[in-house]
Amino acid sequence: MANITLKAVRKSFGSFEVIKGIDLEIRKGEFMVFVGPSGCGKSTLLRLISGLEEITSGDLMFDDARVNNVIPSERGIAMVFQSYVLYPHMKVYDNLAFGMKLGKRDKSEIDTRVRKAAEMLQIDHLLDRLPRQLSGGQRQRVAIGRAIVRDPRVFLFDEPLSNLDAALRVATRLEIAKPHHDMNDVTMIYVTHDQVEAMTLADRICVLRDGVVEQVGTPAELYEKPNSVFVAGFIGSPKMNFLTGTFADAVGCTTLGIRAEHIDIVDQADATWTGTVVHAEDLGSDHFLFVDIGADEPVVVRRSGKLDTGMLGQVVSLRPQAENLHRFGPDDKPLG
Ligand code: ATP
């Protein structure tokens, strides 16, 4: 069991306050992802939960126990960092077994656990190799395996995939999601900059901004019902289109938000906006058109299928889908 609760948690480095009063509950068995701009405090929050940093004020609870003063090795957590170090002279098997050997576990228990973790991560055929004989993704999986064999109650991941190339990121992301499904009462907290990782791995995402929680919710909730302009602009790629001033149509609405996939190209008679296609990006399965409608920035429109390059320079008529408009008031909060 590991329900993690933060109550009014603050952290200062000298006079510089980085975490400014965070209340958050991470449920047992949950995959929670922390996202937010660089410097907002994601890694610091993870380090407070791990015990690598001391909390300045507030309470950190694991289930009903206050763990502020419990040393890291007694918190039942395992951490996987962006940069990880395997013992270069030890085979994969011994890298995986090392922590348990130190803990003086029974030899057959160690063997069972190492093989189970290796199988789960599909590195069981690599147990006799040395780290230098592995690819980057395989090494990262050994690092994850080393955390798994310790049988932690809580996993903390700090951008574990950011050193990998695109294809390996996808493969390793699946490996991270898998143990979560296989060990359904393990709690995972994961820091990332990567939108796709956040949206695909998370049960819930916590959006942090300047040391406070901006919104917590499922990926779909954050995508569909962002509670501020900030979250609307932060979650989703490409970024939500924002229109202000005369383009914001409703009374009291200062910012209108509409996602790229919620704008249709229509006949001129049905147009809300008209503009010129100034740029396009082709992703193969779908494409983005950047349309200058006279607002501060071009409006991005997502369409399925391959790009017709003849669209560049054309004038198009656009209509946002009314049911998918996001209207924000002067306080940047949603209206209605
Ligand atoms: P990034 O996405 O860039 O990794 P982050 O959201 O993880 O950023 P943190 O690493 O938690 O942000 O840092 C938050 C703030 O705290 C930053 O302004 C950072 O400079 C500061 N900070 C972090 N650790 C220390 C420290 N040991 N001493 C002083 N300031 C620190």
TrEMBL record:
Similarity annotation: Belongs to the ABC transporter superfamily.
Highest taxon above the source species: Bacteria
Keywords annotated in UniProt: ATP-binding, Nucleotide-binding, Transport
ABC transporter domain sequence ranges: 4-235
Lineage: Bacteria, Pseudomonadati, Pseudomonadota, Alphaproteobacteria, Rhodobacterales
PANTHER family from the UniProt entry: MALTODEXTRIN IMPORT ATP-BINDING PROTEIN MSMX, MALTOSE_MALTODEXTRIN IMPORT ATP-BINDING PROTEIN MALK
Matching SMART domains: AAA
GO molecular function: ATP binding
UniProt xrefs under InterPro entries: AAA+_ATPase (IPR003593), ABC_transporter-like_ATP-bd (IPR003439), ABC_transporter-like_CS (IPR017871), ABC_transpr_MalK-like (IPR015855), ABC_transpr_MalK/UgpC-like (IPR047641), Mo/tungstate-bd_C_term_dom (IPR008995), NA-bd_OB-fold (IPR012340), P-loop_NTPase (IPR027417)
Organism: Marivivens donghaensis
CDD domains xrefs: ABC_MalK_N
Protein name (record): ABC transporter ATP-binding protein
Record flagged with keyword Nucleotide-binding: yes
